[in-house]
């Protein structure tokens, strides 16, 4: 086994092991797999500079394929028009607190002219940061 082949095998092993300890959404492991492929090709291509070029090209191809075929993870978002209940009064243009999905959230009324009393059912319209924007259920049914 040539020193270049050994180098690519060691590099591939290190990159794949790094994925176990520092997860990078399989980027390190794709680089490692590319290094293993180059280790095989190093038996045919003796020039180290061409091997490095092959490794970079294969890495880009594998990362592109990984991104294309891996399932997309979507961040958690609030489901629109869900119910909550006020635990403090929400004065016009001010914030208050609501219980939403079992947790206390800071909330504002979507309409700055409305006040919402304590223990009233509200509908969550959207979220901005940690603040929910709500409307009383009575306003939606009226």
Q: What does this molecule look like?
A:
With 142 residues, this protein is of the alpha+beta class. The protein folds into 2 domains: 3-69, no CATH class; 82-141, Beta Barrel (OB fold (Dihydrolipoamide Acetyltransferase, E2P)). The protein is built from 4 helices and 5 strands; from the N terminus they run αααβββββα. The chain has a 5-stranded mixed β-barrel. The radius of gyration is 28 Å and the shape is rod-shaped.
Descriptors:
OB fold (Dihydrolipoamide Acetyltransferase, E2P); single chain; 43% helix; 142 residues; alpha+beta; five-stranded mixed beta barrel; 4 helices; 2 domains; 5 strands
Secondary-structure map:
Elements: H1 3-21, H2 27-41, H3 48-69, E1 82-86, E2 95-100, E3 103-109, E4 121-128, E5 131-136, H4 137-141
Parallel strand pairs: 3-5
Antiparallel strand pairs: 1-2, 1-4, 2-3, 4-5
What is the radius of gyration computed over CA atoms, rounded to a whole number of angstroms?
Answer: 28 Å
How far apart lie the N and C ends?
A: 80 Å
Please, what is the average pLDDT? 88
| Unreliable sequence segments | none
Q: Assess the beta-strand content as a share of residues.
A: 15-25%
Structural class: alpha+beta
Helical proportion, percent range = 40-55%
Query: What's the total number of strands?
Result: 5
Outline, from the CA principal axes?
A: rod-shaped
How many structural domains are formed by the residues? Answer: 2
- Order of adjacent strands in the largest pleated sheet: 1-2-3-5-4
Largest sheet: 5 strands, mixed, barrel
> Which series of helices and strands comes N to C?
HHHEEEEEH
Count up the helices. 4
């Amino acid at each position: 086994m040539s020193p270049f082949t050994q180098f690519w095998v060691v590099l591939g092993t290190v990159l794949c092991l790094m994925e176990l300890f520092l997860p990078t959404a399989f980027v390190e492991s794709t680089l490692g797999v590319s290094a293993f492929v180059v280790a095989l090709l190093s038996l045919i291509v003796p020039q180290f500079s061409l091997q490095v070029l092959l490794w970079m090209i294969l890495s880009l191809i594998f990362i592109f394929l990984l991104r294309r075929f891996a399932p997309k993870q979507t961040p958690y978002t609030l489901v629109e028009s869900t119910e909550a209940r006020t635990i403090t009064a929400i004065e016009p243009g001010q914030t208050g607190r609501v219980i939403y999905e079992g947790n206390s959230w800071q909330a504002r009324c979507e309409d700055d002219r409305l006040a919402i009393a304590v223990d009233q059912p509200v509908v969550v319209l959207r979220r901005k940061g940690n603040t929910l924007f709500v409307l009383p259920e009575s306003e939606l049914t009226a």
